[in-house]
Input
Amino acid sequence: MAKSRGGGGPASPGGRHHSLAGTRESLPEAGGDELSSLGSDSEVNGGGGPEERRVDKFGFIVGSRSAEGPLEEVPLEVLRQRESKWLDMLNNWDKWMAKKHKKIRLRCQKGIPPSLRGRAWQYLSGSKVKLEQNIGKFDELDLLPGDPKWLDVIERDLHRQFPFHEMFVSRGGHGQQDLFRVLKAYTLYRPEEGYCQAQAPIAAVLLMHMPAEQAFWCLVQICEKYLPGYYSEKLEAIQLDGQILFSLLHKVSPVAYKHLSKQKIDPILYMTEWFMCAFSRTLPWSSVLRVWDMFFCEGVKIIFRVGLVLLKHTLGSSDKLKSCQGQYETMERLRAISPKIMQETFLVQEVIELPVTERQIEREHLIQLKKWRETHGELQCKSPPRLHGAKAISEAEPPTRKALEPVPSIIVPPGPAPVPKARKSKEKSREKGPASPANGPGAEGNGVPGLARELLHPQVSPHHQSKESLSSRESEDTYL
Output
């Protein structure tokens, strides 16, 4: 995956990183390619203009290599029930995240309803809170001119991102414009990182599900919390994770591990695009969305699990290895993984059942980091620690709130508290009797009784004060 530099274009094969060549869409390089006319009403599906194009349920042009074949549809009644459950969770997010995180995880594994997917990703990633903490920041970045060395490279990459999706099919269309805005804003937000080609497909997927500002903050969370260091200039983090993946493969599939070791195939050769693009350019689209649902909830372990499942079922038996005896044949097999392995139902179930945990990944990370220091010295990119999913992000960065103040559940007009008629005679008799000490039992008769004060001014838990929890009016902001 090339880390683009200004004026240099995509990295050469002998450079630091690998290009996007050989991906599911097999996109040509910039300039003089057959896709350059797609935005000018070219014939894509046997028809003339865009009005004749048919798209699938995900927005891909029917007949293109990116379009999905027959899919397993969720029954409408089940979908409506899931939508209702997700709306309840989103409207009471803090409470669910604090007390019922396992339930959120199970529902992410089943798949987030399409109508709520973008909103759910924002809540899971913490990008909604990030946006609220930085109101107006994206607009401010959007108005700045940007660094010319990045702008040229970003512009050259725009037409390569899902060119057969209705949102990005037109050169200069709203999809490409928003993609440019998001990527440019990130180079201004993190000038020390700049722009990496692998960020473009990530941002494009986000834009398919939410507006530009929300997509920007979601991209920030992915780059800083889920995959820190992945898009830095040296790509040290992705190289470390390649070694972690290979070590975990030894336990998951010894046959595949032995074969790759024998062929001397470095993990960076096959896993770079998988991990940096979060499989968005590898898997069928229905599988991409299910993987991302789990990734936003559970973190990078999902990316590791998907990679391990693909390797295990592609190279994990002697029968499968008969047709890939050499290095070239093995790489070709990994570039053209069987559709059966990548099929949504099969893949998701395998990923859920694979026993690879955050603890294993972190333990292996320490081992590989020690080896790295012995051979390469200290890491040049000082990335923040990786956070494993929504729960870790929520605990590490709770929403900033004003100091909690007791809020009355019943609003009482100013003045003395009303006294029931039945108690008026008793109060009068108390007034005639000897005065009670100021802090004695009789003090409650003067003004609001102690118990009443507690009822009128309860100590409200943080969950009821959350800025992140939606009110009913906010539930209308679902991005369809």
Q: What stands out?
A: The longest helix spans residues 358-376. Residues 5-48, 402-407, 435-480 have pLDDT under 50 and may be disordered. The two ends are 32 Å apart (CA to CA).
